[in-house]
Amino acid sequence: MDPVLYARARDSMAPEIEISWDEYKEELAHVISQMMFVSGETAEPSPETTTIIEEIVHTQVVEMLKRSTALATRRGSRSISTNDLFFLIRHDKAKLSRLVTFLSWKDVRKTAKDSDDKGGDAADIGGDDPLGGADAGAGGGGPVVGDTGKKNKRTKVTLPWDVSSYFSEQVPERDDDEDEDEEEMNAATILRLKTADERTKNMTKEEYVHYSECRQASFTFRKAKRFREWAGFHLYTDSKPNDDIVDILGFLTFEIVQTLTEEALQVKAEEERMKNRTGEANAQSQKRKRETGLFGEKEEGRTPIGPKHIQEAFSRLQVKPIPGRNRVWMGGPRALHRTELRLVSI
Predict the structure, then answer these.
(1) Above 50 in pLDDT, residue 140?
(2) What confidence tens digit (pLDDT) does each residue in 45-93 have?
(3) Mean pLDDT calculated for residue range 273-288
(4) In this structure, are residues 7 and 215 in contact, taking their beta carbons and an 8 Å threshold?
(5) Rounded (5°) CA angle 335-341-342
(6) What is the Cβ-side half-sphere exposure of residue 344, based on CA atoms within 13 angstroms?
(7) Secondary structure percentages of the chain, helix, strand, coil, to 5
(8) Rounded distance between C-alpha atoms, residue 183 and residue 93, angstroms
(9) pTM
(10) By CB neighbour count within 10 A (0-12 exposed, 13-18 middle, 19+ buried), where does 77 fall?
């Protein structure tokens, strides 16, 4: 299991903290800078950069709420469900599978916690660790055997558009059975962990501890109430969304910031290559001293990505083809103009 996914499932059970609106707004800038650092931006971003990222994320969250509300209305419901959000990212099978896995582990932790609170016979898996007490970062730990594993086994989530949901009888699950979505999720997780390993292999112990803390940055962790106000839930939904909706949006906001940052870094790299080819680059910048670690406090000439890089990255992401989605030409002059806002997180 992805260690970041496990940590989010663990932290989702943490109690809410009291925080003012001004404090939440100030913390958002810090949270965004942490997310950018995890995504590869080692320099300190400017307030203008974090502000424009916050505006883009807010627009994306509002768009997801609007589309989810429209889907709920079409099925005759006044409240949005997790399936409505799942439907929005259905083309990204790896990300969808990660979200389903996240909610499954969250349900396992909630069940185990309720059993402990009631003093029941159901034992927790490795105490508070659904991975059997192993270090999540190390990926160790063996399978749990006996009745404990059966009682705390995560349930398989069936999506409404899956073929299996059309039938009342389901084929019994096997422990070694892996569907296509899980295979794509595992491949994406391996790639994500490989990228993280490349970014952290030269870090010191203190640097890696800071990196690990930044990986837990969240718009929603222990401040779901302020997140609801920031997103404007009351403006787009008639009912109060449950905690799973907030957790999913918290997961997707991290993905949005990460996608924007990685694309902006590519834009900045292309810009620097262009300057080098045209002879506009400063000669000293080519001789600057580089450090081996990700922390570049002593690195000369290191400039962070700016608002123009974020804007260009967002523009590129709006026209990038969506994997797994086929576009059909409907004809007519209006087909040349795209007015629908595309979700960055897919």
Answers:
(1) no
(2) 999 999 999 999 999 999 999 999 999 999 898 889 999 999 998 888 8
(3) 66
(4) yes
(5) 95
(6) 31
(7) 55, 0, 45
(8) 10
(9) 0.73
(10) middle
